[in-house]
Amino acid sequence: MVLVHHDTPVPPPASPMRRWLWKFACALRGVLVGMQGQNSFYVHVPAAIVVCIVAAWLEVSLAEWLVLVLCITVVMTAELLNSALEHLARAVTREVHPEVRNALDIASGAVLVASLGACVVGVMVLVNHWAPVVGS
Ligand SMILES: Nc1ncnc2c1ncn2[C@@H]1O[C@H](COP(=O)(O)OP(=O)(O)OP(=O)(O)O)[C@@H](O)[C@H]1O
């Protein structure tokens, strides 16, 4: 599925207001391009939705919501940076290179670390609320 067209980059507009709008448009396009073709998003986005539904059902506190939202944001950000590096690597070389391998593996490792941390926090927050609900 094509979410974004990869046509020729357009130059930024001259007026400050339009320039800011243009920056947001570029950033939004970046999110869409970053998600495109990244299988991990098909796991992370549904997982984040499930966590939010369960958190709403369990009526977690504001502080717990903030922690959960922060965890989801950190994982998504790591995924987008990983995707950006993959694009950059493909632009630099299509040949097998040990440093490209290292860079891509490190970026994947960053996603893994963020995801594991988010899992631990999510499970601890939700289980902490789940036990009294199930026990009652
Ligand atoms: N040019 C390259 N040189 C050396 N190793 C590479 C190169 N391109 C990819 N790799 C290796 O292959 C792995 C997967 O590459 P890549 O991330 O491009 O594939 P992918 O299946 O699209 O990954 P993802 O599921 O994260 O999108 C990298 O982590 C790296 O180890």
UniProtKB/TrEMBL annotation:
Mn(2+), Zn(2+), Cd(2+) and Co(2+) support activity to lesser extents. InterPro entries: DAGK, DAGK_sf, UDPK. The chain crosses the membrane at residues 42-59, 65-85, 106-131. Substrate binds at R19, W57, L58, E59, V60, E79, S108. It is a multi-pass membrane protein. Pfam families: DAGK_prokar (PF01219). CDD domains: UDPK_IM_like. It comes from the Bacteria. It is found in: Cell membrane. GO terms for biological process: phospholipid biosynthetic process. Its cofactor is Mg(2+). One of its GO terms (molecular function) is kinase activity. A divalent metal cation binds at E86. Keywords: ATP-binding, Cell membrane, Kinase, Lipid biosynthesis, Lipid metabolism, Magnesium, Membrane, Metal-binding, Nucleotide-binding, Phospholipid biosynthesis, Phospholipid metabolism, Transferase, Transmembrane, Transmembrane helix. The active site is at E79 (proton acceptor). GO terms for cellular component: plasma membrane. This is Diacylglycerol kinase family protein. It comes from Aeoliella straminimaris.
